[in-house]
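Researcher: Please predict.
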Amino acid sequence: MAESADISKASAARALESMVDSVTGALKSGDSLTLVGFGTFSVRKREARAGRNPKTGEAIQIKAANVPAFKAGKALKEALN
């Protein structure tokens, strides 16, 4: 990232950390974040469900959770195909 942007590694690390903090902050507040041409970060609610402990086979209850999601944008999809 630093090489392609022609900046120092420290500057690239700060820029990346800032971007990650911005995405995290937006998702924590319940917003979604769209980077045009790249994709959209959002939060999805995963419902509580029954599961099994793989070691013992015992039935367990898995709690509901908010999970991060990413949907690739059109330009990113086209770049890969």
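Model: The longest strand covers residues 39-46.
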